[in-house]
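User: Hey, my collaborator sent me this sequence without any context and asked if I could get a structure. I don't really work with proteins. Can you help?
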Amino acid sequence: MLKVLIASPSDVRTLRDSVEQSLHEWNTDRAAAATTILLPRRWESGAVPQLTGEDGQSVINHQLVDDADIIIGVFSQTLGSATPRAASGTAEELERARDAGKPVHVYFSAMPIDRDHDREQLAALDAFKQSLQEIGLYGTFDTAGDLEKKVRAAIEHDIAGLGLGSPMLQRAGGAEVAGHYKYEREADSKGRMRTRRERVEIVNAGTSTAEDVQVTLVSEDEGLEAPSFYNAATPFTLAPNGGTFALPILAYAGSANHVRVELSWKEDGEERQNSHSLSLL
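Assistant: No problem. I've predicted the 3D structure and written it out in structure-token form, which is a compact way to encode the shape of the chain:
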């Protein structure tokens, strides 16, 4: 089970609802195949009143932030109230989780702003957004549905990074082969961030060598073709205990963002195979 904290100021309750719904839908679609369950957590329902001698945000930190596995931050028009340690409670939660090495994903609304918005809060939010550019990459969303889609993509990325989400052959020992989507982000000549060096890394997390490994990508997006490998993927061998082989992919406009990775290999002369879903977002 992975505990997912939805961190946000009080003005985005409906968007927190959308994120929570997205996590529940992921459980319906993917929990069985990924052999893990997502547990959404929110400050208004997850925090327990407790007199500890500390301020309220510290209580939330101990109860929710420190216990979370993944943190999703969502902002619209306000940053929130300052704490003794940070620009706002939500900012403190995100910074604390980041410092602890947890996966942190932050999204800002690009939807129209209310005419009676709080200008000071909007300015504080813009300053916070600028500060994030120095330490990573944040996302934006145009609709609640767009936010849900991007949260699911982030979850798939984290699950792959945590070594989850890839059904393995349930055997004592043996090779455990799965694919993970990897990429880098770089600024182009105009300063815009672009995705570069996209690849599917095939990893053997098992205790036996996987020989003659072959990989095929099959689209799971109706009407779209799966991305192709730059070069025809020839069979390769994966050493046990983390052996890795990278397959560069050519993702073009209109290609599928969701694929099934079909794997086959030989282990002690016997044919083995495995398949699992993979998000290329």
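In plain terms: The CA atoms of residues 123 and 245 lie 46 Å apart. You can pass these tokens on to your collaborator as they are.
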